[in-house]
Write a structure and sequence with these properties.
Blueprint: H1 3-29, H2 32-40, H3 42-61, H4 67-99, H5 106-132, H6 135-164, H7 173-199
Helix pairs in contact: 1-2, 1-3, 1-4, 1-5, 2-4, 3-4, 4-7, 5-6, 5-7, 6-7
Length: 204
């Protein structure tokens, strides 16, 4: 991986990290201002993702690079694009929470906060991984992802049980489950990117 590709990947990571931070803040405060700030970030995320794909396609059509070279980069661009869609989905759900005065139970808030923090921590590892291509770091990311997805799936199942028992409000359940699904998507996409980065590291 050359410096130009590294810089572009790190740039898109940083814009994704920033948007997820703003969404997390929006979830914690549930104010129109905080949610609007997260919403405004989506254009930057879309632009960075689109520019990465455009850069790769242009470079792969030159004599210097080819189609095989482009595949892992286009795969990462697609993963980042899907991350952006998951984040936009969360922003829409936060808007609904404010508009319809939907609140979560303390338990649901803690569960979402915990998964949010884990997703943030994983995403923040990507710039270092892009720079170092450290296989131990990639392995750690993989282990963390599997552990977090298991916990998040458990939260979803328990929430559905509480809904059936009448403990949870039907109005808030789709929002809660939707946010969890979006976070799980971001976590899975982070693992996809991690795998592609390692595949581009120099062979011993």
């Amino acid at each position: 991986m050359e410096k130009d590709e590294e810089e572009r990947l790190i740039q898109i990571c940083r814009s994704q990290i920033k948007m997820l931070e703003l969404i997390f803040e929006g979830f914690r405060t549930l104010t129109e201002k905080s949610i609007q700030e997260a919403d405004q970030m989506k254009e930057k995320v879309r632009k960075d993702s689109s520019e990465l794909a455009k850069f790769v396609i242009e470079k792969s059509s030159s004599a210097e690079k080819g189609r095989e070279w482009a595949k892992p980069y286009l795969s990462m661009a697609s993963s980042f694009d899907r991350m952006g869609h998951h984040m936009e989905g969360m922003v829409d759900r936060l808007k609904s929470m404010v508009k319809d005065h939907i609140l979560f139970s303390d338990r649901a808030v803690k569960e979402v906060n915990d998964i949010f923090q884990e997703a943030m921590d994983l995403l923040e590892n990507l710039p270092d991984l892009i720079h170092t291509k450290n296989k131990m770091l990639a392995q750690h990311i993989g282990e963390q992802v599997r552990s977090i997805l298991k916990i998040a799936n458990g939260h979803s199942e328990e929430h559905e049980d509480r809904l059936i028992q009448g403990v949870c409000m039907p109005k808030s359940a789709p929002i809660y489950l939707g946010i969890l699904e979006s976070l799980k998507g971001i976590i899975a996409n982070t693992l996809e990117v991690s795998g592609k980065i390692v595949s581009l590291s120099p062979k011993p």
